[in-house]
Amino acid sequence: MADDRDRDGTEIAVAEFHKKIKEAFEVFDHESNNTVDVREVGTIIRSLGCCPSEGELHDLIAEVEEEEPTGYIRFEKFLPVMTEVLLERRYRPIPEDILLRAFEVLDPAKRGFLSKDELIKYMTEEGEPFSQEEMEEMLSAAIDPESNSILYKDYITMMVIDEN
Amino acid sequence: MNTPNLEDMGCGTSSATKDKKSEKALKAALVIQNWYRGYRARLKTRQRYALTIFQSIEYADEQGQLQLSNFFSFMLENYTHVQEKEPGLVTRLFGSSIQDKDRQDYLELIEIPDSYCGPRLQFPLTFTDIDLLIEAFKQQQILHAYYVLEVLFETKKVLQQMPNFTHTNTSPSKEITICGDLHGKLDDLFLIFYKNGLPSVTNPYVFNGDFVDRGKNSMEILMILFVSFLVYPNDLHLNRGNHEDFMMNMRYGFTKEILHKYKLHGKKILQILEEVYTWLPIGTIIDNEVLVIHGGISESTDLNLLHRIERNKMRSVLMPPIPMDGDRAEKKNKLGTTTVAQGSRTSGSFSEQLTKQEWEQVIDILWSDPRGKRGCYPNTNRGGGCYFGPDITSKILNKYQLKILVRSHECKPEGYEICHDGKVITVFSASNYYEEGSNRGAYIRMSSGTTPRFFQYQITKATCFRPLYQRVNAIESSAIRMLKERMISRKTDLIRAFQLQDRNKSGKLSMGQWAFSMENVLGLNLPWRSLSSHLVTTDKDGNIDYMSGFQDVHIQKPVKEVQSTLIETVYRYRSDLQIIFNIIDSDHSGLISMEEFRSMWKLFKSHYSVHIDDSQFDELAERMDLNKDGSIDFNEFLKAFYVVHKFDQLNKSDTKLA
């Protein structure tokens, strides 16, 4: 029956999600005791294909933390929360064309690039600002050394290729 | 139309447009930041995965050591004709040390040619010799074998005076620096000395083992450390690591480095080095509070026993004590009579072993790893030592009134790591250990009563770092390559496991089934689901075409007519075979007789349960035409088995043979 098959389908999906989540978690579980440092939770969640904002991440962490925060997140608490996130397909990643449009908004004169200073200003002063480390890392890959600017269309294409 | 001005506080409309514009910019910034953070996290995860692969394979290799050691015991216990026919082999493994009176004999025979423009040491050594060596090594000069041997003899002499554990004290004005594994990475040592100063009476150091193997300047590091030790014996402390072991060196590169750099005198150097290793102290205790040892502890670690044992009897991790029963005693006598006349090594030396208990205590110290799980478990990854939990740490530290355990032995991405509630510190000083960009190195400065301080660094060839994604790509490709070589070396077993699950013979398996077989056969605990995209092709239903994993890699067949299974087997066991051959080749000529070659293979085959026809093997040896007057050049033999990666610029894989 269709209902049974749906249920089976969901069960199988849940089982596979559990395994995926466990794998991603274990890679950061340095002491092999089913806990990870809370500072790595964001990386784990993102590695599973989700793109929460910093604010959304903050809320997620609050859900998986202990009542009295220990600095560590236990797998038992992480698993159900993360499974829900995956089942509900929350925090979907940004499609390439939206990303391109975002850059174009910051480049109203349609020059095709952003200057280094402009990018720094937007990334460190607007939205959910970058840390210095994040800014430096982004620049190292995004900057075109000849023009000292960010040719955003090329940059996006390069990153997309790298991910695939 | 004028673009709105930030100063324009004028009419409502322009302010609304301004707000709308800045709201759009805010949203755009959020989109970019969100995307970038996701991308960066995935990069970091890929980096972590690559490290996990490197580490799993490294430990699986170490586990292979245990199998090899079992093989030696098996060989000696079951093949008496080996003992009779090859007494040289047995004494080589169990012979006692070269006497000191041979020192003069060795050194007298060596001449330093006038053309030698490398560093010349002056005994007794002073700090100027340390500077001299460092300058010379920076210019890639090689220290002449004469000086190497002199340093080794002197070092052994001084080490023999020292107890199993060095006790030392610090004060607020005299901090001590602790360094972890260096593994032949000379640049890291230079960097540490540059940042932290050379060793001296006011700048003491502890080097916590694994100075050698893997990197290409193990000899230079050893010379700098030993010379510094001879100049400052009370302020430069050396602990033995699991790689200060002549058998480990055969597998992991130091033996090869020595024989390559010292073509004439390499063998002598190897012989003396073997002994110097056994005299290295087991550990250092600072201020009666901090225990510094290379690996770790177990629940039965007995520091009092370890203080008492004769540490120089610990020759190699691969040579556990042979059980002594009535039979043995007889054989011992037999050996005693047949071999005492031979050369420099005496036999009848079974009494020159540690007891089993003592040996295990030392193995635990050199090979164990801390883990979060409570209790003490055999270290199955490495095949020696154990995993010890925080309860074990507390128990042992309390038992001996110690506060902290500082150890090394494991590569950490940040160069150091603290665990067990601050009681265990791991420090690892070889940056870029697996691959450029893989990890930082670190060292610790501490003194009694103050919190330890950590210093991190990373050597880079370029003047500035490549962007993160390029570095991650590099280590990821390198790790995947290694993994594929593993897969191909177990191809037959893997296919068998896959086919067992593939009932309909469709050539496909579910993700779960494929991951299960991979983990089981390869014995590597890796995130297979996440790695699958790099290793196999998946169809639109999520099922895996398991044969696709072998598509772009194959082992080069040195001879066309020979069966793939034989090629695969030799490739898979090539490091073990190399060690075995090296042991048999007691004069380090690189050649062994065809007969020795064949009988070794037979023994190897039966112990490792390899089912291959002897005639196949003979044919292989014959056809490869490595026969030089009835001898086989085994390095050439083993080099002929390598993996070809189809889409590679380089055709030969980095087989990393010892």
From TrEMBL, chain A:
The keyword Repeat applies. GO terms for cellular component: sperm principal piece. Residues 16-51, 94-129 form the EF-hand domain. SUPFAM superfamilies: EF-hand (SSF47473). PROSITE patterns: EF_HAND_2. GO terms for molecular function: calcium ion binding. Pfam families: EF-hand_7. Keywords: Repeat. InterPro entries: EF-hand-dom_pair, EF_hand_dom. This is EF-hand calcium binding domain 2. It comes from Capra hircus (Goat).
TrEMBL record, chain B:
GO terms for biological process: detection of stimulus involved in sensory perception. The keyword Magnesium applies. It comes from the Eukaryota. PROSITE patterns: EF_HAND_1, EF_HAND_2, IQ, SER_THR_PHOSPHATASE. PANTHER family: SERINE/THREONINE-PROTEIN PHOSPHATASE 5-RELATED (PTHR45668), SERINE_THREONINE-PROTEIN PHOSPHATASE WITH EF-HANDS 1 (PTHR45668:SF1). Gene3D superfamilies: 3.60.21.10, EF-hand. Its cofactor is Mn(2+); Mg(2+). Pfam families: EF-hand_7, IQ, Metallophos, PPP5. Keywords: Calcium, Hydrolase, Magnesium, Manganese, Metal-binding, Protein phosphatase, Repeat. Belongs to the PPP phosphatase family. GO terms for molecular function: calcium ion binding; iron ion binding; manganese ion binding; protein serine/threonine phosphatase activity. This is Serine/threonine-protein phosphatase with EF-hands. It catalyses: O-phospho-L-threonyl-[protein] + H2O = L-threonyl-[protein] + phosphate; O-phospho-L-seryl-[protein] + H2O = L-seryl-[protein] + phosphate. The keyword DNA repair does not apply. Its EC number is 3.1.3.16.
